[in-house]
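We store amino acids, tokens; thus:
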Amino acid sequence: MSLPASQRGFTLIELIATLVILGVLASIAVPKYYDITREAQNRAALQAVTEGKARLSMNYAKLFLENASPPGTTSLVDAVGTTTNIGDYSLNFSSVGTFTIKINASGKPGVQGTNSALWLLPK
């Protein structure tokens, strides 16, 4: 007994082939999605670091004008604060040497993404 063409279904082979193709696509797409998400979070942290550099530059100019001499890294870190919040990120400033300040950005609880950079005193 044969069924009319409108009532025929898929064979088991066709269903298995479809599932295999979907599985392969998912095994490629899911890790790529997580990589892109991680990269976006790190770039957002980089934007926070850039904001920290701008704050250091502004405070450097302010202290230079007020004191008529260039400030050192420790006085500049004190002026900016060792920890500052920018959006979803927390910035930590630390004096690395005579002419260098390190800026670390890390996400607040529930926010991932980290980045860091060095800021050099102008010469």
